[in-house]
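tool_log.txt
---
The assistant was asked to compare two proteins side by side. It first ran the structure predictor on the initial sequence, then on the second. Raw inputs and outputs are pasted verbatim so the downstream comparison step can read them without reformatting.
(1)
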Amino acid sequence: MNRTVSMAGAAITTVTVFLFAVCILCDFIFGSYIVCMFLPIGYMMMAAGLHHECGEKTKVSANIGMILAGVYAVLILLVYFAQTTTVRTEILTDQASRILNYQRGGLLFNYDLLGYGMMALSTFFIGLAMKAENKPDRWLKRLLMTHGIFFPGCFFMPMTGMFTSMAEGRSGNGGYIALLFWCLYFIPIGVLAWRHFSSRET
């Protein structure tokens, strides 16, 4: 069961990130919101599988990674559930729209960035705890830990207002390019994680 759930999580992570990239390229905003609500679920399943395998010497790091994964999931689900419900179905005042509408930047946009910052820290600690036994696993470990470099940008850059400008379209296609780059980076993590779990006996 542990192996099956972990493999399913890796598969969900890979597919949702790929679909997110497709939605970005097709400018299908609602679809990207839906996909983003399934990504945290898949990631938590995948991270739990790696957490389960860690030894006692790396348990603290693995536990931190799982806690941060939970924080990431809560923030992201709140942000995108708001986009697909309240923002989509209610008539909002201009002030409320500035706060709630992801497309206009504002509070929920910043919470989204904070969520992905927590995900970056989560991958770092999960990668730190992972025991790599072969070359693909070593690549997975490196990619997970290196993904942690996204944390400073997600955490500190919203304080500068730069990402709000990108959300409101004042910085060209920079935001879309950054998201596509992230997708290209994260898809191999899901693929390597699936391979890792599929090679396990239990």
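(2)
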Amino acid sequence: MFSLFDITAKRASLDGDKVAMQEPGSGRSVTYSALDQNAAKTASFLAAQGINPGDRVAVLCQNSIAFFETLFACGKLGAVLVPLNWRMPANELRTLIADCTPGLLLFDETFRETATELGVAKFAPLVSDAADDLVALRESFEPHKGRLSWPADDAWYLLYTSGTTGVPKAVIQTYGMALVNYINLGQAITLTSEDRTLNFLPLFHTAGINLYTLPTLIAGGTVTVLPAFDEEVVIDLLEAGDLDTFFGVPAVYQLLSLHPRFGEVDLTKVRNWGCGGAPLSDALVTLYQDRGIVVCNGYGMTETGPTVFLMDPAHVKEKIGSVGKAQIMTAVRIMDESGADVPEGGVGEMWLKGPGLTPGYWNKPEATATAFTEDGWLRTGDLAQTDEDGFFYIVGRAKEMFISGGENVYPAEVENILCDHPAVLEVAVVGKQDEKWGEVGVAFTMLREGAGQMSQDTLRAYCRENMAAYKIPKEFVFVGDFPRTAAGKIQKHLLKP
């Protein structure tokens, strides 16, 4: 097993006076030396709260420099960071809290009410206008000496993702995964210490941390942090020529294309444009090409750290829809149902292998065993094929999960919540195409006998109280029964949204 050395300490020694991160909204900016010192003081603060190596620190926040200072503090201390989905209501988050059992919860002031409902014994504001937030409190602490090395196989943070069963599971993210992602991504986009990138994707997703923020910080570049995606601010940054690399989900590219100034801004100042989370439509690829921009589709998973594929700009036009070829640290196979390799052009499940894969799911050995083969291949559940030139195409998902606005939505999870409504007997949720969000859910709903009249608005209101907004079905279709197999299983493929 190899180890990484303290990332911020190393960067401070190499580029101490260089700006590492900046926030246009707050006006805050930190050099690599300041980033390292702040992370070290945060580590001392965490230790004073009783956090030891291996203990979990939960964070409920939008994007900020303080989040990354806390992430690096956990590295110095050997603690494990757990970013929580701030879009979830407290009753959903409690399941995650019970699973990871954090010793401390940090939160944005915006989420104070939710944080107090979660029942964590120790909690404190991460960033606020008060004098009792972490940024203020840590100033009274001496910088933590930190660990000299960070073992590659050790857990650094956990990212929760819900499987098709609707049961949330935390994907373990290691220090080694961060290094492999830096290599896979860095060689794909020719990442350098001069690169400037933008951070706005949610931090409870791998993209928010790793595409392209963490690799840019490892390389010694500069990251501009926005609390969330704001097309007006992004357009301003693009117009000013302040970005060299850019990564977004298809919904981001769609929203930018609809901005009134989209046709006026010189987008060619950005050297590399990347897209993931879902395939970018051919229409959007062509629209950006007409503006002189080549958007490179990619593919990855939380379980892969995430970068596996990223299309090279030279082949985008002739290979529209492809995610490219597997990057240098990842091997790929396409397999049929019997476990045999599928020949060129055939469709099968994509299997992945390499040092950038997660060691498994937190506290879920059975789920880990199911996801991996005995010889270490990850079964992705995604269907793919290759062309005669070896370029890969994702042609479908074996799982029922669909993607709405860049967010993974798992039908079983939504169905489980809806079936808790006293008037609902059974539900089948399927995804359908949507111009704005990429995909949205349609809930085919069978009511209990004697339930009386039920409206879409009533069920929608119930959903707002019990699930994150992006999971709420856009439509509710009331049915008397479902098409079923002989065993009684609903045949979802026969349901037409």
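---
observation on (2): The first strand starts at residue 3 and ends at 5. The chain has a mean pLDDT of 93.
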